[in-house]
């Protein structure tokens, strides 16, 4: 199998799913990791230019996931992108976000840089992940406190499954005729966090409560979780953008670009029900 695609963030939510899809397509993707653990992984650190050469060896396409907890990632990513372009990499697929326009903050600046410099590029702009409830920040509070905390108010989000993002990423990395550009990726239905809490309540048989936090309370909560103040403020601003309708939109990009129907949130809950169950919740829902 060809080892011609480098996947940064290859053990993360979208990257790990992308790797599985690429393997199924006959590729042998190389996973970039600061602490490689297998033959399919290679040492890579955004801050260490000495790690670039081995990561880029014979690579023709790269899936780019920005380094974590970095408010403005272009400065960290540009040296690697420049090295990759100089070495002949012809395709870059960037994971950004629906709320980040080209030339805007965070991945928006990387988006603009790829547009201006990369020979082939595509930017995925998904809305918020369903997996935020099953694998990330909301999992422990749902499981241990029967609670969801946000500053989203009554705003609605068409949550998307990371598997659907990976499907589009795989097409963008492997299909020769895939165009340059960007797309907003959404699930099939918009939901408020209150409605998500109701779906979880019905599935678990235990009341899950969505707590509406102020901007200040949300920033403090992110900081308490270990995020820097600037990054906490940026993430909170994304929450408050939801509150005023910034994410309440639907697209058909998953169907058009990957040929699959995006996952419904109710089906996602049913498929992942075990991750939220504790002995206490299991007893109540029995």
Mean pLDDT, all residues: 94
How many helices does DSSP assign?
13
Q: How much helix, percentage-wise, in residues?
A: 40-55%
Q: Which oligomeric form is depicted?
A: single chain
How would you describe this structure in keywords?
single chain; 286 residues; alpha/beta; 7-stranded parallel sheet; two-stranded parallel sheet; 13 helices; 11 strands; 43% helix; globular
Task: Give a written overview of the molecule.
The protein is an alpha/beta fold and about 290 residues long. It is about 45% helix and about 15% strand. A 7-stranded parallel beta sheet has the order 3-2-1-4-5-6-9, with helices on both faces. β5, α4 and β6 (about 120-125) form a beta-alpha-beta unit. α1 crosses α7 (about 160-175), α3 (about 75-85) runs parallel beside α4 (about 105-115) and α8 (about 195-205) runs parallel beside α12. The longest helix is centred in the last third of the chain and has 15 residues, at about 230-245. The chain is globular and about 55 Å long. The mean pLDDT is about 95.
